[in-house]
Structure prediction request, 71 residues.
Amino acid sequence: MATIRGTVRHNDLEGGFYELVADDGTVYRLDGATGVKAGQKVTVEGEVEAPGFGIHMTSTPVLVVESIRPA
Prediction:
């Protein structure tokens, strides 16, 4: 399980979804993030999945959220 700190942003592509811009600059698509807002600094614990094809049409890795809390 990974623990990643960063800033939440909203991506309007394909109906919209949330991403995490990690402090190191890596961008993850958040899967299972609820109650978050764009611009919020958070710490996320979860599993990182390799980039793949999906409805969001991005090539960013997916971070499957186990827990999320304000940073």
In short: The chain has one domain: 2-70. The mean pLDDT is 90.
